[in-house]
Amino acid sequence: MFLSKDNGVRIYYETFGDREGLPLILIHGQGLDHYMFKKQIEKYTNEDIFLITPDMRGHGRSSKVDSLELMDWAEDINDLMYQHGLETANILGVSMGGVIAQKFAVEYPEKVDKLILSDTFAEINSLTEKLAAYSQVIGFTLFRIFPKQLRAKIIASAYKDYSPEVYEYFKKVTKKADFGQLVLSRKAINKIDLLEELEKLNKPVLVMAGDKILIKPAQKIAGSLPNSSLKIIEGSSDPSNMTKPTEFDKNVLDFLLE
Question: How high is the pLDDT of residue 64?
């Protein structure tokens, strides 16, 4: 299905589960698509949860764009909710999806029931953070000249110690990715600066991070939120929903259904 915007942008999405169930929007990571949530789709629909799983603009089957800001993504989520008649929903974002979820939550707090953030960050402030952020822009720019097979193999190699399914997914999605769009999306992500605004967000929030990466950013986020819990997933890396799905799903379902 597609959400068609007034400016011609089209957002591809799929829905799963009973429309009368608990609404949950799943927001994927950078360079990926809604299919990264395959295991969650299979499991959560058995828990009376209604899922909306978009490909964010610049990714998957959604439109390519000439410019991109965090607010564009937040408005897309808002429009998806409107299309389905949802006044409020639960929002789950992983990695880049966590950045988008935070932006949506501070812009539309009245539309958030519960917020789940995994393997993400709320600011790029220190020199180390800035160097890491802009090295991503440089990396995606360089990858544009690599043969598709080579860049897919390089990126997927980071997941060779996890399941073959995860490794093959990253190979497949990287081959299809438009690295020009990834440069735009990374530049948009690098503008995030939401810690102070999160302090005003009085919603239940679950913050998760794998113990191999992004623990300090997760601690910053949880420390800024007035009503949050922090879970560190042992042996996990970004994205935790794929690298440690059992632990990830237990945390999510306990939080959503409590």
Answer: 97
The model scores a pTM over 0.85: yes
Residue 63 in contact with residue 10, Cβ under 8 Å?
yes
Beta carbons of 238 and 217 less than 8 angstroms apart: no
Cα–Cα distance for residue pair 55/13, rounded to 1 Å: 6
pLDDT for 258: 84
**Residue whose entry in the numeric block shows the structure tokens 């789950």:** 92
Mean pLDDT (10-residue bins), the chain, 258 residues: 94 97 98 98 96 98 97 98 97 98 98 98 92 93 91 93 95 95 97 96 97 90 97 96 98 96
Task: Provide the pLDDT for residue 213.
Answer: 79
**CA-CA-CA-CA dihedral for 62, 64, 106, 234, to nearest 10:** 70
Contact 32, 41 (CB under 8 A): no
